[in-house]
Amino acid sequence: MIPVRPKPWEDEILSSWLIRCSIMNGSDPTSFADAIWPKSRMWTKDMDRFLPEDKVYALSEATSLSPGEIVGMTLAGVIEKVTHLSRMKPTIAWPWVIPTGSRSRKRVNGLHFCPKCLGLSTVYFKKQWRLSWNVACPHHSILLHIHCPACHSVFSPQLVQYDDGDVSKCHMCGYDLKSTSSLPANEMALDLQEYLNAIAINDQYAKDVFPLLEGKTHLVFATVRLLMRFFRRADRCQAVQRVVGRLDGQEERRLKHAGNLLDMAGVDERHYLLTLVGKLCKMQHNDVLFILREEGVTRQMFERTKCELESTIDDIMGALKDNVRGEVHRKLSTRSLEPKSKREIEIKMDELRRYL
């Protein structure tokens, strides 16, 4: 039994608690995990998603936490709720969970952080920061980060050393992550994020906030995911581009993505997608249908899904026209090629570094 056994915070994720516990007991997270689970190399696995039963009981015996408290710090319960699936398979990707992409103990994605939260008296990491509908800190209204701005290493607090347990420093270059500059979160994106968190984590439902999202939990999340994927088509579908222009007020703006999975997309892209989805879901059924019809959106422009959807969006999709065979919906661009901006290059490099 370890001597110092801190209680988990209500919304704390398992890896965060293990990191705090190891530091309080004068150890580093790697050695601490090896002592509890010998030869298991737990930091190369995504323990925040799922922890096998034998590992749960081993941790319970070492720390006096109940098995229920340990499992409660993983993401399994939340994902089962929002997908309406039971016993999620640990060997496949889970929808809505940002993958860690671990290489040895180093990660290429996964846990995000808020620079201002790192400066608080008690530092811990939340479940929400591994869920892809979360893009901002609700307390500070700024976008989350995943990289050190100095050396661009992925945030990896599990690599902290026993003789310096400061998780607010970059493990590679020592940069003070508390000083990372942050962009303000869009109010609409933040409202939708917290609306979804209230449903998924706290079982709190609010009426008349987002008229298109007022059904059962799994229907709400299936609808949000469908709409996020719909807006991702804006870089290759003119009708969707026009809808984005109506919602965003900037006809010339184009939504671009690196072609990766939604849950692997960067914070900037997911932030913009949530903003668009929030604006659309704030509208009434008839207003949404009017805009989609006027801009030439067809039923086939929404990705096919086996998931049950909210009746409102299902009705809207059913009222749209079908593609006419042989009809051309995309015109070849006549615009000359122009160099990408520095910001676009940085976003592309962020995506590329996840695979290096």
Structure description:
With 356 residues, the chain is an all-alpha fold. It is 37% helix and 1% strand. Strand 1 and strand 2 form a beta hairpin. The longest helix is centred in the middle third of the chain and has 16 residues, at 217-232. The radius of gyration is 22 Å and the shape is globular.
Count of strand segments: 2
Poorly predicted regions? 326-332
Calculate Rg over CA atoms.
22 Å
> In which order are the strands of the major sheet placed?
1-2
Strand content: under 5%
Q: What structural category do the secondary elements indicate?
A: mainly alpha
Tally of helical segments: 12
Order of helices and strands: HHHHHEEHHHHHHH
Helix content class: 25-40%
Tell me the span between the first and last alpha carbons: 40 Å
The major beta sheet can be summarized as: 2 strands, antiparallel
| Overall 3D shape | globular
- State mean pLDDT (0 to 100 scale): 88
Describe the SSE topology.
Blueprint: H1 14-24, H2 29-36, H3 53-63, H4 67-72, H5 76-83, E1 136-137, E2 142-143, H6 187-200, H7 217-232, H8 238-248, H9 267-281, H10 285-294, H11 311-318, H12 342-353
Antiparallel strand pairs: 1-2
Question: Main traits of this protein?
Answer:
12 helices
Q: What is the structure about, briefly put?
A:
The chain is an all-alpha fold and about 350 residues long. The protein has helices at about 15-25, 30-35, 55-65, 65-70, 75-85, 185-200, 215-230, 240-250, 265-280, 285-295, 310-320, 340-355; strands spanning about 135, 140-145.
